[in-house]
């Protein structure tokens, strides 16, 4: 499900089926020399989470991305998130990011880190293949929690 | 898919109710902007070419990808990758939508080892026969949708999704 009124209505009626929350964590760099890379990872994360959502629409709620800049204190950020996200009754929470810093931050839920791949130079078909490959690698993380 | 608001319905929604006149004058430009791409794509009923050659189809469904250009979706305006399960039944080309009728996950042909000749939905174990018929006792309550199919120059073209006509 996407964070839209239409999907939210479905979610509110079908909470017991849609038990997994996907939270994209997006780092936005503001230093001029990093802008290009930053936009590239933003695109990558967008494609990946969009694809993930279409594959598992009926089981996942995809939140809008949580965006922060390079000087954000991630520990505080994650504390706030942990507290606020707990208001929702999801059984499983996954954070998806291309920012490796999250691997050393304490947060309630699972962090899926993927290295950003520059998709901008690829044609559609290759891009789709790459995204699917990436997804296939993280898929066991989901199936594992779903089967317990 | 089928519950898209037509331009006329949309007008009548915004014009109804008290204060509707004022509100619609203010809201229309904004909402029109957001909703226009949707209206356009449902107006066309166009067929979209796929790379799938008709002679290469068999009775076993294969996945065919095609792209709808410029849909406003997600965070940005983007091209949308779409998929169909396509097979031949005699000489007829059948294309089914992979969207599970339970809550909309993407189903896979032979996606579950214990049910090799069915579509399988990984989300809550929904299952469908080859023609899209839902297997009773699994969550989906209806058959998979069908795509309108056209063959041109030996290639498969796909149109709108329509309710399953095979079941
Ligand atoms: S979404 Fe397919 S079985 Fe629930």
Automatic annotation (TrEMBL), chain A:
<dbReference type="Pfam" id="PF10673">
    <property type="entry name" value="DUF2487"/>
</dbReference>
<protein>
    <recommendedName>
        <fullName>DUF2487 domain-containing protein</fullName>
    </recommendedName>
</protein>
<dbReference type="InterPro" id="IPR019615">
    <property type="entry name" value="DUF2487"/>
</dbReference>
UniProtKB/TrEMBL annotation, chain B:
<dbReference type="InterPro" id="IPR006311">
    <property type="entry name" value="TAT_signal"/>
</dbReference>
<feature type="transmembrane region" description="Helical">
    <location>
        <begin position="12"/>
        <end position="31"/>
    </location>
</feature>
<keyword id="KW-0813">Transport</keyword>
<dbReference type="GO" id="GO:0004497">
    <property type="term" value="F:monooxygenase activity"/>
</dbReference>
<comment type="subunit">
    <text>The main subunits of the menaquinol:cytochrome c complex are a Rieske-type iron-sulfur protein (QcrA), a cytochrome b (QcrB) and a cytochrome c (QcrC).</text>
</comment>
<dbReference type="Pfam" id="PF00355">
    <property type="entry name" value="Rieske"/>
</dbReference>
<keyword id="KW-0411">Iron-sulfur</keyword>
<keyword id="KW-1133">Transmembrane helix</keyword>
<keyword id="KW-0408">Iron</keyword>
<keyword id="KW-0472">Membrane</keyword>
<keyword id="KW-0249">Electron transport</keyword>
<comment type="function">
    <text>Component of the menaquinol:cytochrome c reductase complex. The Rieske protein is a high potential 2Fe-2S protein.</text>
</comment>
<protein>
    <recommendedName>
        <fullName>Menaquinol:cytochrome c reductase iron-sulfur subunit</fullName>
    </recommendedName>
</protein>
<keyword id="KW-0560">Oxidoreductase</keyword>
<keyword id="KW-1015">Disulfide bond</keyword>
<keyword id="KW-0812">Transmembrane</keyword>
<keyword id="KW-0001">2Fe-2S</keyword>
<dbReference type="InterPro" id="IPR017941">
    <property type="entry name" value="Rieske_2Fe-2S"/>
</dbReference>
<keyword id="KW-0479">Metal-binding</keyword>
<feature type="domain" description="Rieske">
    <location>
        <begin position="84"/>
        <end position="158"/>
    </location>
</feature>
<dbReference type="GO" id="GO:0046872">
    <property type="term" value="F:metal ion binding"/>
</dbReference>
<comment type="similarity">
    <text>Belongs to the Rieske iron-sulfur protein family.</text>
</comment>
């Amino acid at each position: 499900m996407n964070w839209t009124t239409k999907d939210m209505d479905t979610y509110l009626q079908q909470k017991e089926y849609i038990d997994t929350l996907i939270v994209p964590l997006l780092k936005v760099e503001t230093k001029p020399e990093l802008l290009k890379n930053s936009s590239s990872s933003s695109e990558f994360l967008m494609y990946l989470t969009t694809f993930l959502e279409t594959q598992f629409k009926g089981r996942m709620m995809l939140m809008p991305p949580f965006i922060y800049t390079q000087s954000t204190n991630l520990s505080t950020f994650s504390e706030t998130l942990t507290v606020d996200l707990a208001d929702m009754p999801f059984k499983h929470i996954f954070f998806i990011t291309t920012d490796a810093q999250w691997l050393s931050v304490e947060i309630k839920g699972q962090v899926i880190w993927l290295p950003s791949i520059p998709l901008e130079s690829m044609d559609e078909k290759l891009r789709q293949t790459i995204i699917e490959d990436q997804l296939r690698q993280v898929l066991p993380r989901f199936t594992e929690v779903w089967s317990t | 898919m089928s519950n898209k608001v037509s331009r006329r319905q949309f007008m009548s929604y915004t014009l109804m109710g008290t204060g509707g006149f004022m509100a619609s004058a203010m809201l229309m430009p904004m909402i029109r902007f957001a909703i226009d791409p949707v209206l356009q794509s449902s107006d066309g009923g166009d067929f979209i070419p796929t790379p799938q050659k008709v002679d290469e189809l068999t009775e076993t469904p294969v996945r065919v990808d095609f792209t709808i250009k410029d849909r406003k979706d997600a965070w940005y305006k983007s091209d949308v990758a779409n998929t169909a399960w396509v097979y031949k039944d005699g000489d007829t080309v059948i294309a089914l939508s992979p969207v599970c009728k339970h809550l909309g996950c993407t189903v896979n042909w032979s996606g579950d080892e214990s049910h090799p000749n069915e579509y399988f939905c990984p989300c809550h174990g929904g299952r469908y026969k080859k023609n899209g018929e839902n297997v009773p006792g699994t969550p989906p309550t209806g058959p998979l949708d069908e795509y309108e199919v056209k063959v041109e120059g030996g290639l498969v073209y796909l149109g709108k999704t329509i309710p399953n006509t095979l079941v």
